[in-house]
Every structure is written in structure tokens, then in C-alpha cells.
Design a protein that fits this description.
The complex is a heterodimer of chains A (111) and B (112). Chain A is mainly beta and 111 residues long. Chain A contains no helices and eleven strands. Chain B is mainly beta and 112 residues long. The chains are: A mainly beta (111), B mainly beta (112).
Chain lengths: 111, 112
């Protein structure tokens, strides 16, 4: 059973606008969440993370929001750039040992 | 040079063959992971290791085995490959002090 879900397989956004990628989880024991970005023919690369003691973390154009009561997190990219076009995976961990990944959202930023 | 390398990058094999995928890292991390990626299923954990004497099963370990030959090397074996093991396989490493994993470029395996 998928413990981390990304219900939107794809998203298209105009350059300069905001991209919002969503992720839901079912395990209330998850206490650390990460976003990875993946280009074709490459491995995923770490983008941003958030601990369950926070509800927001920012790094430049990227902000991750965590809503623990809804078991939901989102990644905001603003402004979106064509180079942001990639597949984005969210991941979650309860113990720091195993990480559970979502199915990914393919973002296309249209110039 | 890449910090996490995987060999081979592509492999086509036949049902019943034994296959080994290798992963090496120069990051000095003690924790290493093997994942597979399938369309619509994301990345799923096969095995992970916290040091050469510590091997743990992940979500989908059936049909796979691993060997941690050294801190820097972690191999994944398919003893008798079957077509539903056709997938993209990723190795990852992590330092004990962080939750960030560093992934290799992946191995695309096709089992005919």
C-alpha cells in the first residue's frame, strides 16, 4: 500500500508563474519529508526538506509547506523556469532508516 | 568524477540468468540503499545497509540479494532474473548525520 502519494502525474506551468506540487501521506509516524528532482537519464537529486516540527521551509525559489493535520505537503516553485522541468518526487521517513517515495509528478515549464 | 557510480548503466538479459548490479561511492557515507523505479510506482526500497555487517530488507526484497563488500561498495544480485524485474535500479548513499540521499545515475535492466 502506497504510504506516500502524488496524485498528479503531470503539471504544466507558464514560465514565471508559480508551480505547486502536492504530496499526501498516510503514516502519522513520518517526521521528515524531502523533495527530490529527477532529470531523464540521471538519478534523483535532493532539493529541499522539512522536519515535522516546522510547517514551512524556504530555499531560494523553493518553499515546502507541511500540514500535519491533513498529512499533506506541497512544494512551491516561484518563479518557475524552463530548467525546472523535471520529475519531482516527495519522500518521507519515520525512523531515518527507510524512506518512502511518492510516484512522482512530471513538471513542464513552458517558455 | 561522480560521487556515486553504478555499473552497468544498461543491461539486457534473459529469464533465469544471474545478474549483478554494482554500486560504488566516494562520499565516505556509511549508509547505502538499492531502489527500483517502475512507471506509476515511484521508487521502492529493495535493501539497505548501514555498514558492512548490517544488511536490511526493504519493501520489495523478494528475488534479490545484496552484498556489502566494503564501505564504498554495495552490490545487488538477481539470482534468477524474471521479466517483472525489468526496471530502472538506483543506488543511493547517505551520511548518518543527515536524511539526504545521494543517488547514482541508475541502471536500466531489461529481462527478456
Amino acid at each position: 500500500d502506497q504510504q506516500v502519494k502524488q496524485n498528479s502525474p503531470s503539471l504544466s506551468v507558464q514560465e514565471g508563474r508559480i508551480s505547486i506540487l502536492n504530496c499526501d501521506y498516510t503514516n502519522s509516524m513520518f517526521d521528515y519529508f524531502l523533495w527530490y528532482k529527477k532529470y531523464p537519464a540521471e538519478g534523483p537529486t535532493f532539493l529541499i526538506s522539512i522536519s515535522s516540527i516546522k510547517d514551512k521551509n524556504e530555499d531560494g525559489r523553493f518553499t515546502v509547506f507541511l500540514n500535519k493535520s491533513a498529512k499533506h505537503l506541497s512544494l512551491h516553485i516561484v518563479p518557475s523556469q524552463p530548467g525546472d522541468s523535471a520529475v519531482y518526487f516527495c519522500a518521507a521517513s519515520a525512523t531515518g532508516n527507510q524512506f518512502y517515495f511518492g510516484t512522482g509528478t512530471s513538471l513542464t515549464v513552458i517558455p | 568524477d561522480a560521487d556515486v557510480t553504478q555499473t552497468p548503466r544498461n543491461r539486457i538479459t534473459k529469464t533465469g540468468k544471474r545478474i549483478m548490479l554494482e554500486c560504488s561511492q566516494t562520499k565516505g557515507h556509511d549508509r547505502m540503499y538499492w531502489y527500483r523505479q517502475d512507471p506509476g510506482l515511484g521508487l521502492r526500497l529493495i535493501y539497505y545497509s548501514f555498514d558492512v555487517k548490517d544488511i536490511n530488507k526493504g519493501e520489495i526484497s523478494d528475488g534479490y540479494s545484496v552484498s556489502r563488500q566494503a564501505q564504498a561498495k554495495f552490490s545487488l544480485s538477481l539470482e534468477s532474473a524474471i521479466p517483472n524485474q525489468t526496471a530502472l535500479y538506483f543506488c543511493a548513499t547517505r551520511a548518518a548525520s543527515t536524511d539526504t540521499q545521494y543517488f547514482g545515475p541508475g541502471t536500466r535492466l531489461t529481462v527478456l
